[in-house]
Amino acid sequence: MEIENNLPKTFDPKAAEDKWYAKWLENKCFKPKAGKQKRTFTVLMPPPNVTGKLHMGHALDATTQDALIRYKRMKGFETLWIPGTDHAGISTQAVVEKLIWKEEKKNRHDLGREEFLKRIWAWKEQYGTEIVNQQQKMGVSCDWDYSTFTLDEIPNKAVKKFFVMLFNEGLIYQSDYIVNWDPVLQSAISDAEVEHKEVRGHFYHLKYKVKEDPTIELVIATTRPETIFADTAVAVNPNDERFKDLIGKTAIIPICNREIPIIGDEHVDIEKGTGCLKVTPGHDFNDFEIGKRNGLPIINILNKDGTFNTNAPEIEGLNPKDARAEVERILIELDVLVEKKDHVHPVGHGQRSDEIVEPMVSKQWFLNTTAMSQVAVEAVENGEMTFFPKGWENTYFAWLKSPKDWCISRQLWWGHQIPVYYCRHCDAKWAAEETPSECIDCRDTDIFQDPDVLDTWFSSGLWPLSTLGWPDEKAMEEKGFDKFYPNSTLITGFDIIFFWVARMMMMGMKVTGKAPFKHTYIHAIVRDKQGRKMSKSLGNGIDPLDMVSKYGADAMRFTLAAGSGYNRDLNLDPERIEGYRNFVNKLWNAFRFIYPYLDKAQDELPIKSEWHLHDKWILAELNTVAKSMNESLDVYRFDDASSAIYAFVYDKFCSWYIELSKNILYGEDEKAKIVRATMLKYCFRKIVALLHPIVPFITEEIWSYLESDETKLLAVQDYVEFDPSLENAEVQDMMNRFIEVTTGVRNIRSSVNMKPKDEIDVKLFTDDKKLAKFIYDSRHFLKDLANVKSGTIRNKTQERPKKSASLATVHTEIFIPLEGIIDINEQVNRIKKDMEKTQNEYKKVEGKLNNQNFMSNAPEEVRAEVQEKAKMFQDKLQSLNQILESFL
RNA sequence: GGGCGUUUAGCUCAGCUGGGAGAGCGCUACCCUUACAAGGUAGAUGUCGGGGGUUCGAUCCCCUCAACGCCCACCA
């Protein structure tokens, strides 16, 4: 009896994706709406940089956040997910500069600040739009009306307001300080933006003459001989017997022959190098400190582009690499170089430019974060904000508990220009939120703004505030600041815990006194299947949109969710996406199966007395999975939630419940058909609801067949909650045994190479009366599932058939009489093997029961459990013995 | 150097406050069975990194060793 089915055999993701995303937008599903929880749930999207295309890390970000927000939305929270993009000062400026150079052979100075900024804005418009397209293809359910760009008017106001506030408190100050100078960007960068890499270099030992005593030659060790031009002292440890008499005398720098003092400073390590240290306050962090302690002058020998300036005439204009070679040559010529040996040491590189950063002294703006970090630490310690998984708070603390002042100025053009103004007429310097027209002191109009811009993370740190309108009162009202701040959960990667999470905490608390979010879920970093970072240079990157077009957005999302728990790496193999694509298709085909019976199905569940045993079972299992999904999603275990529903759909629903339904649906009992069709429809409605947060497209598509009211989209239906009235451990237990018996029969069939078409006679022996009844009630199903023609169920006092293919579970013996057809030896061996295994297991539990210490110390329930197990193994051994006897 | 983390089936990983070792993929055999070959049925696979300790009992707790990874600090 073939039933007409006009649904396609495989699910077509593309059509569903475009169709349903448009429908969701059209119905304003993503806008906050008050729900039964009477509470809000807010998530703030980490704004992607406008530098280019989204990568797998963004896809993971998007998937986990979307799953969470869809889940909460269905649970009846008033949900808001705020999207946006980041101007990403340094990287964006660098990318655009490079592009302009490539196309027009012009640098930013050739264009001028205004024109250059115009170009970046044009670029931003293009890529910003592309990012939104990509996100929508992945199904993100954010409220696009809230979309914010970090250089928009409100964030700009926020930055100015915050800056002026802290400036006036004296927390922001300007200072000549040694900073990490990136010669490519020609800007200072913060400590956090420096990456240390092992570099092969050399240790040079150089002779410095002592003016007062030409017989003494000091040997100093350095890895950077080219910086001797900036030396302003030689330092030794005042406790160093070898050199302490030299303190106060004068050393002469080779090549330039400048005289510098020999000083004593505790910082010098007697053991390290030669014990003599050349002090270069202008180009070394430690030396800068020594210089400050000892009042040494600072000499700068570098230009902004990293080449040497006139203070180092012999190497003027050279880059560091050539300069070093040249200095080395001169040193050899002067016979000053005593020794040169290979040396591997860490050298700071710019995170964005990947060039060696040069410590250089310059005037920069700093933010004193001492008090703010203290507050941010306390908020986590006292539980106002919690990390998931908890371990990440260590990273957070490590950063905030030893706060260093934050260098917030950057010598770039793309960003928030520092709202500090200077007067050319007098010496006034002040910060202001509104652009002033005259000097604050002398009222002269010849004033100018500081040309530097702020570190990108300065505006990112204010993101939870500015996206909700702060500090503009009207905007705050419109966007519901009071309602949605603090946010609920922040989802991001561990690589930006201190760049971003810590800064948002500091700044949010500074402004409002409240932590900007209650939870921070730190997800894994996506790597390739071998665990390597995805990068352009390795060429191992996977483009999320390629995956979406190849396997569908749902498959990709399920893969990412299934891989996202409390782990720190997610090694992504495209084969796994294919696997989950198959799962999505499985779901589709399960639906195809029930589709023809939908018109028989009723809207409400039948009364309980009409439920078949199998119905009770599937509802109990469904209830179990609902419970576990709720619990998992509440604590961001997307992996557990995914595998729970995966196992349910595959194993329980498809493999058993659908198979068990065929007998009824293909049968003659119309009443039973209606009940079963109703059950299937009900289950499917619950299944797609449970799955919707992870795979929104296919579930919405299937929902459209299950819900007659077209205005009721699945995206805004109720999530499935645990229902105690559906619990039924006894039926679940019986069903498991029934499954064991069925599998046992199939197992025997397979062990004697029986064809699926061969019908068999089965004789079961069990002392479990309830089970016997259950199997008897399900006898027609057993026939279908294992192609059983006839059979009997008896208790174990009855005589067993002779020489049958057989098998024993702990509760049931299965015999299939096949005398003459089967290989007796093979069967006996199989049973003996099982016996040995069971024997071993039995010995283990028996050992425990014979152990006095176990019996007196183990808790009651554990003892009972072990006793029960012992009984089970005993029963099984007895059964196996019976079977062996039947072969005699 | 300081800190964090990892080591469980061929691969990727899960195992909650100690109490019979799990999943997915892969693999093997047989099947185009009327939802699905992007499928079905059955099956195999582990000294839970090494050593020691605590405990009646350790994949789980403590110590130690080893390997690997990450973060922070450091251009003598």
Class from secondary-structure proportions: alpha/beta
Summed over residues and divided by their number, the pLDDT gives a mean of 89
Distance between the termini: 47 Å
Report the portion of residues in β strands.
Answer: 15-25%
Instruction: Count the E strands.
Output: 29
**In terms of per-residue confidence, which ranges show pLDDT below 50 for 5 or more consecutive residues?**
none
Helix tally? Answer: 28
Helix content: 40-55%
Give the overall shape.
elongated
What is the rounded Rg?
Answer: 37 Å
| Major beta-sheet overview | 7 strands, mixed
Folded structure, characterized:
This protein has 888 residues and is α/β, with parallel strands linked by helices. Helices cover 45% and strands 18% of the residues. It is built from 28 helices and 29 strands. The strands form nine sheets. Strands 7, 8, 9, 10, 11, 12 and 13 form a seven-stranded mixed sheet that branches. A four-stranded antiparallel sheet has the order 6-5-14-16. Strands 27-26-29-28 form a four-stranded mixed sheet, sandwiched between helices. Strand 10 (250-252) and strand 11 form a beta hairpin. Helix 16 crosses helix 17 (553-562) and helix 20 runs antiparallel to helix 21 (670-691). The longest helix is centred in the last third of the chain and has 28 residues, at 638-665. It is elongated and about 115 Å long. The structure holds one RNA strand of 76 nucleotides.
